[in-house]
Write a structure and sequence with these properties.
By secondary structure, this protein is mainly alpha-helical. The protein is built from eight helices and four strands, in the order βαββαβαααααα.
Length: 209
């Protein structure tokens, strides 16, 4: 163990005056050194246990602040709106691709993009996307339904396979967003896409199970 003498403290004090002195581990003050600190009114502690407690002071736990529920809801709503915008862009892209193959079908996809943009907004315009068929009509177009029939490689290889797969992909994307948002106002768009898929496949009778 090393002892700190009065001379050691005097040399340190001449170099740079100090008002407190902390002992390093493994050192002790001599009686003369202790009296020097007392005379100079310099605070010190030569209790080894006290020094140990000070040196290894436990870290204070950080208190996590939870984000207010209202702000969290705003973030979620904002993210859903961004996803809807991305989905609208997919409809526009699909419409452009269909322009080269079927102008009438492309126009109906553009109409659905406008319908999609109105979800979550108050609109007084008449809904011209609803088309009556043996499976869907104005009374049930807003209800949730499964796909009229499963789309497989067989349908993809048919004469209108590209159109069918493109419409099916849009339908899957809308259904995913509707499930995440928990909003049944997406259902008319989903059901209209089912109608278009059936028409492209050439179905004369309703294929909905």
């Amino acid at each position: 163990m090393k002892f700190i003498t009065e001379d050691d403290l005097r040399i340190l004090f001449r170099r740079e005056p100090f008002t407190s002195y902390d002992l390093l581990g493994g050192t002790r003050l001599t009686p003369g050194a202790r009296q020097f600190l007392v005379d100079k009114k310099i605070s010190f502690c030569d209790d080894p246990m006290s020094i140990k407690r000070k040196t290894f002071k436990p870290e204070e736990k950080k208190v996590e602040t939870k984000e207010p529920e209202s702000n969290k809801q705003v973030v979620i709503s904002g993210m859903l709106e961004l996803k809807k915008k991305t989905l609208q862009a997919q409809f526009l892209e699909a419409g452009l691709l269909l322009m080269e193959r079927d102008v009438l079908l492309a126009q109906q996809v553009f109409d659905l993009e406008r319908k999609l943009s109105d979800v979550g907004k108050e609109s007084t315009e008449e809904d011209n996307t609803i088309q009556v068929c043996t499976g869907f009509h104005k009374d049930n177009i807003k209800e949730p339904f499964d796909d009229c029939f499963d789309i497989s490689g067989f349908h993809a290889q048919s004469e209108k396979g590209k159109e069918i797969v493109m419409l099916h992909r849009l339908r899957c994307s809308v259904r995913e967003l509707a499930a995440e948002a928990g909003d049944n106002r997406f259902n008319p768009v989903i059901n209209r896409l089912s109608q278009l898929i059936c028409l492209e496949y050439g179905g004369k009778a309703c294929q909905r199970k």
